[in-house]
Write a structure and sequence with these properties.
Blueprint (H helix, E strand, L loop, with lengths): L1 E4 L7 E4 L17 E8 L4 E2 L23 E2 L3 E6 L5 E5 L15 E7 L6 E8 L25 E6 L5 E5 L4 E5 L10 E2 L6 H7 L11 E6 L5 E6 L10 E8 L4 E10 L6 E7 L4 E7 L10 E7 L10 E7 L3 E2 L10 E2 L5 E9 L2 E7 L16 E7 L17
Antiparallel strand pairs: 1-2, 3-26, 4-5, 6-7, 7-8, 8-9, 10-11, 11-12, 12-13, 14-15, 15-16, 16-17, 18-19, 19-20, 20-21, 22-23, 24-25, 25-26
Length: 400
């Protein structure tokens, strides 16, 4: 039994079953997707010495009084592998909507497994800010620290130069930050696609549903292109068809190339999208259920080569997250492991045959694991029966 111990006054422990889980669970042959590691970050995890948060939260908070004395480390909506055994995880916009998240500071958290000693520390993180004034409209805070009322950050790519590209849902926008979390340029909008939050500010007509912007953001293996996947259908498109938009990082513009990912049903949503190689992506598809009502929680491979010529990304089921083999009963669960969370928003490829998946716990609201109890942020690694044959360039250089 290994422990992931959080540093400083957090004094929190992640219990991790199986050595080396942050780097995957080895290459033992399996015939079905199999759980190789389980970890759980307690729901009540906060950034020590930070600012109060949650003063605008209402509704059922599953027993947690609000406001909170500090900023919660919660709601992971994106993950980036640093290549040195650490991972940067993107906290969500706050408490579920623009109106109640003005005192939630947008932040990238860093988790760092130790190379020896069996521990993982939260070694810090960085707040997202706009000190140079690239955002042309009025922000929530005069100090230009970005909050969940300014942007709904849902997806992240870490470039080779250490800068971050982040996908937002309120625009939807692409945001480019330096390695210290400072915005480098004005938010990049998507032509003819406008979320309600931007429509309310500008007077434009909304063409997208609320919270249906860039839920997935993938980087091409050569680093030149980003592929930004909307969570919702654009007005006029077939319900359940989601646009995957190609963006050229050299020119700072969209190329005009758009691919279509079709959901299994119009009421479903995506949780993340990352690249496997130059043509294939891993995409989380989910319903809105949790606990007993969770049914569709899946990982698909989507291929832009469209071999059947139907105008859609080709889809192949990779993992049913509600039916994962667990022969070792990791985490104290039975021989079939389920991931019954409302929002599952993080996937990362650890090696040719292993992926890691994290939920977004929507702290303090979601209770998919135990009814009436706020969900933890869980980390699982899954061994695959066959290699993904990923492009080796998707794995970051050591120590990036």
């Amino acid at each position: 039994m290994r422990k992931i111990v959080y540093s400083g006054s957090l004094a929190l422990v992640l219990t991790l079953t199986l050595a080396g889980a942050a780097r995957a669970g080895g290459h033992a042959h399996v015939t079905t997707p199999t759980l190789t590691a389980f970890a759980s970050l307690p729901a009540a995890t906060f950034v020590p010495g930070s600012e109060p948060s949650g003063s605008l939260v209402t509704g059922n908070t599953n027993g947690f009084p609000v406001p909170f004395a500090d900023q919660p480390v919660q709601g992971f909506s994106g993950i980036a592998n640093n290549g040195d055994g650490s991972f940067d995880v993107l906290s969500d916009n706050g408490y579920g909507n623009q109106a109640n998240s003005a005192d939630f500071l947008l932040r990238v958290q860093r988790l760092a497994p130790a190379k020896a000693g069996g521990t993982v520390d939260v070694v810090g993180g960085l707040n997202l800010t706009d000190p140079a004034g690239h955002v042309p409209w009025r922000l929530t805070r005069d100090d230009r620290a970005l909050t969940g009322a300014d942007f709904d950050v849902e997806s992240i790519v870490k470039a080779d130069d250490g800068t971050y590209w982040i996908g937002d849902e309120f625009g939807p926008y692409l945001l480019h930050f330096d390695r210290a979390g400072r915005l480098l340029a004005a938010p990049v909008p998507l032509d003819k696609v406008t979320a309600p939050e931007t429509a309310a500010r500008t007077g434009a007509t909304a063409t997208l549903g609320g919270s249906k912007g860039f839920e997935g953001l993938a980087e091409s293996p050569d680093g030149r292109y980003l592929y930004a996947l909307l969570e919702g259908s654009v007005a006029g498109d077939t319900a359940g068809d989601l646009r995957l938009n190609e963006f050229d990082t050299r020119s700072g513009r969209y190329t005009g190339k758009t691919y279509v990912y079709r959901l299994g049903a119009a009421g479903l949503a995506i949780g993340d999208a990352i690249a496997i190689d130059g043509n294939r992506f891993l995409i989380i598809e989910r319903d809105g259920g949790q606990g007993a009502t969770a049914v569709v929680k899946r990982l698909y491979i989507a291929d832009k080569r469209d071999r059947d010529h139907d105008g859609l990304l080709d889809k192949t089921l990779l993992v049913d997250l509600m039916n994962i083999a667990n022969p070792r009963r990791l985490g104290g669960f039975g021989t079939t492991f389920t991931f019954p969370f409302q929002t599952i928003e993080d996937v990362v490829i650890l090696d040719d045959k292993t992926v890691a998946v994290l939920n977004d716990n929507n702290f303090p609201f979601s209770s998919g694991r135990t009814a009436g109890v706020a969900d933890n942020n869980e980390w699982i690694t899954i061994a695959l029966p066959a290699s993904l044959h990923p492009d080796k360039r998707i794995f970051p250089a050591q120590g990036r």
